[in-house]
Amino acid sequence: MYTFIVNPNARSGLGHKVWKDIERSLKESGADYQAYLTRYQRHATSIARELTCHRRPCTLIVLGGDGTVNEVMNGITDLSQVTFGYIPIGSSNDFARGLGLSTDPLTALGHILAPSKYTYINVGAMSYQGKRRRFAVSTGIGFDAGVCHQVVVSRLKVLLNKIGLGKLSYVGVALSLMMSLKPGKMTVTLDDSRKMEFESVYFAVAMNTRYEGGGFKFCPDADPSDGLLDVIVIANMSKLKALALLPTAFKGCHVRFKGIHIFTCRKADIVSRTPLPVHTDGEPIFLQRHICASLEPQKMKLILS
Question: Per the database record, which ranges form the DAGKc domain (predicted)?
Fold first, then answer.
């Protein structure tokens, strides 16, 4: 039995159209399936929790964007009991990009119905003020989270989605936000042992995959199956240099420049002097001073192709 969790509003309503095409193919193939369509924010979390509360093996297929993936992962009761499939139709699709998944819906469906390759991926966990949220792609504090916050409320994303250029909304918002940003001091402690102080930090991100923000290859060596997080800290550079380096991050070329700090760890504790925006997989969290990123002890089985 394939269980689909569908976000019909993904990519400004494209999800509804794509689901009709997917359901037509499912019926033609004779596949045994059931589908749940989300109706409100974090509905996918409630659906996933209800579907997995029995802690028995199941196959969950998500149709939506990175935000829908995030919601579903936050509802799964036992990660080790789930086989996860994904049909990406979001604006950024960083989860699919980082894992090399097909972004063509019918091709992705074909891989799910007749899989030839699986992998086991890490799932991140971010804690703050006694709360905990999982992430598939990344969690960050500072500039990158500020971009995510503004994109959520921006009409630019809706307009660009209509012409298939939704990921450019992140670039547009980033350029605008950079001009008003005031870098501040952060303390980053890795694996409870390596403590580092940074002045004038733009942002700090713990990444499970290589990409975030619509294709920025911030941590080129990040591997979602290696049992490690890759952490990037951008600090001590002028705004002009930061703006100039931003486009180079699409290819991962930014890592060669001074002010780009990348580390690997199993746990990253990040403290900011002032409250800053925070996100998990682009989903905003209210301003925080302190976050801790780590990995769940269980891996999750993912259909690759």
Answer: 1-130
Going by pLDDT thresholds of 50, 70 and 90, the confidence category of residue 261 is very high
For the record, the structure tokens of 260 come out as 């780009």
pTM: 0.92
Tell me what the mean pLDDT of segment 254-273 comes to: 97
Distances 33 to 5, 36, 76, 252, 258 between C-alpha atoms, Å: 11, 10, 19, 40, 52
Instruction: Compute, in degrees rounded to 10, the torsion defined by CA atoms 177, 178, 183, 188.
Output: 80
Residue 242 phi, psi (nearest 5): -60, -40
pLDDT tens, residue by residue, 120-165: 999 999 999 999 999 999 999 998 888 776 766 555 554 545 545 4
* Residues contacting residue 106 through CB under 8 Å, at least 6 positions apart: 21, 22, 25
Tokens of 267: 């746990």
Q: Which phi and psi angles does 163 have, rounded to 5°?
A: -110, 15
Domains parsed from the chain with CATH numbers: 2-122 (3.40.50.10330), 125-297 (2.60.200.40)
